[in-house]
Specification:
The protein is 40% helix and 24% strand. By secondary structure, it is of the alpha/beta class.
Length: 496
């Protein structure tokens, strides 16, 4: 029988992620989990119990939870005695004991490591743990993220008993061979990348109409990837064209971005510099509103900004604004595909409409952030500009307008209380993040309609029966994918 000991602290995921990683990476599935807790973290203890319940349901495990050890938050001896009692009891029963030193206060981690490695005594005999685990997260921006939504390349699972003794553990990645179809959201694609990374896959290839579009190489010890793009594609009209390819590269974050701010003085920023500048502006006493034109929405600029802001320790709530004229343009469908060689595309949105779906997903994202809708009619630049001017006249503060249209930027300059920000896309980045690979898979499947990601599976952005909710939730369909991906995503959906 395998026993796992962990301490409940301020972050339930710090407890759960280590357990989950030991299971999927090393195949270490405990039969029982001891949770040491105090009254201040009782709510977190209940959350962790539900997380473990999700593991049991998703992977068909039968892990029991023992929550009988309530310890004092500040009493070193009380905590140490609880560890000693559990270790002695379980070792006398002949059970294998693993202890997790990742969560809890520093003294709890120190005592957990000491008890695990040096052992504890009952006065007659000394008992040591079989395993002492620690999950090292290299980027603290992911501190409260579930395991499979963090690139595995920046998570290191250490087992100190074997590492300090220079021993080699015969651990096996948890794996099953069954395949099944799986519809998932954009965010959940990272779970699939992580799962295949566990399987030893770090090189991927994206094909469209049997032509190589992208070659991807993941770094194994950093949140980086190298992506090589082939733009010389001969595509059917219903799949896409040269502009489709540029949209994919822009929206996926594969290109360098320059932000040019036309305020009292013209300022230029690279991507990271701009997000820092914006974060600083939003903390000022003056009120700022942020809005986007159609191209900025299609190129996923709101998501890039929100992803940056969400990872900051100091949380702020930006004032987002959307023009109804922009919404009108994005929802003005050009018609379904009626006749083509590939039957999968018949009665599906056209290539340009699929691109506009990318913009609509950003509208939904902004609505979830309580964006203000500016009334307006029409779909042309002048209609959009007039709606922005009207809003600016009626609201105290400054309106930041992000656009990748040079002419539109020029038309907005010199208007009172309006700050146009031009987005200029440059060359392909030499290195990108794993999240960019995730977005490349998602956006390619939407824009092209369907792709093949080797060695994973065929990925569909369109399929018969795909409904408006699937589009809103950024769903795509993986055909015949390893069932371990489904288990991981089932857990994510239950705990996130």
């Amino acid at each position: 029988m395998r026993v796992w000991i962990s301490t409940v602290g301020s972050s339930p995921l710090a407890v759960f992620n280590t357990l989950w990683m030991a299971i999927v990476k090393e195949g270490y599935i405990p039969d029982k989990v001891y949770l040491l807790w105090n009254y201040k973290v009782e709510k977190n203890k209940e959350i962790i119990k539900n997380y473990i319940k999700s593991l049991n349901e998703s992977y068909n495990f039968n892990i029991d939870v023992d929550e009988s050890y309530k310890v004092s938050e500040d009493d070193f001896k009380d905590f140490s005695n609880a560890l000693k009692e559990i270790i002695v009891k379980e070792k006398k029963r002949g059970n294998e004991v693993a202890i997790d030193m990742t969560p809890g206060r520093k003294f709890m981690s120190a005592l957990s490591m000491f008890a695990g490695i040096e052992g504890v005594s009952d006065g007659k005999n000394k008992y040591k743990c079989d395993k002492v685990y620690y999950l090292h997260l290299k980027d603290m921006g992911y501190i409260n993220y579930p395991l499979f939504l963090i690139p595995f390349s920046i998570q290191e699972l250490h087992e100190f008993i074997s590492e300090l003794s220079d021993g080699k553990e015969d651990n096996k990645v948890l794996k099953k061979e069954e395949l099944e179809d799986l519809a998932i959201s954009r965010k959940e694609i990272l779970a699939i990348i992580n799962q295949y990374f566990l399987f030893g896959k770090s090189n991927f290839e994206i094909k469209v109409e049997n032509q190589k579009f992208a070659a991807i190489s993941l770094y194994e010890n950093d949140n980086k990837a190298k992506v090589e793009i082939n733009k010389d594609l001969k595509l059917s009209y219903y799949v896409g064209d040269c502009e489709s390819i540029e949209t994919i590269l822009n929206a996926s974050g594969l290109k360098e971005i320059k932000f040019i701010v036309y305020d009292d003085e013209k300022e230029e920023f690279n991507e990271e510099e701009f997000y820092k500048w914006l974060f600083k502006k939003l903390k000022e006493k003056e009120t700022y509103y942020i809005t986007f034109d159609t191209n900025a929405l299609i190129n996923q600029i709101p998501r890039k900004i929100i992803d940056y802001l969400d990872k900051q320790r100091e949380k702020i709530s930006p004032n987002f604004v959307i023009s109804q004229c922009v919404i009108n343009e994005l929802t003005n469908e050009r018609g379904k595909i009626k006749d083509c060689e590939d039957r999968d595309f018949i009665n599906q949105p056209s290539s340009i409409d699929r691109i506009f779906k990318l913009g609509l997903s950003q509208i939904r994202l902004l609505n979830n952030r309580n964006a203000i809708i500016i009334p307006g009619k029409g779909v042309w630049d002048n209609n959009i500009k007039e709606s922005f001017i009207k809003f600016s006249d009626e609201h105290k503060g400054k309106l930041l307008i992000l656009t990748s249209d040079k002419n539109f930027t020029h038309n907005l300059q010199y208007l009172p209380d309006i700050i146009p920000i031009y987005i200029e896309f440059g060359e392909l980045k030499k290195l990108v993040k794993w999240e960019n690979v995730r977005d490349l898979i998602y956006i390619s499947s939407i824009v092209f309609g369907k792709i093949h990601v080797k060695p994973i599976s065929q990925v569909l952005g369109i399929w018969r029966g795909k409904n408006p909710i699937d589009w809103d939730e950024e769903k795509i369909l993986f055909r015949k994918i390893n069932v371990m991906c489904k288990h991981a995503i089932d857990v994510l959906r239950n705990i996130h």
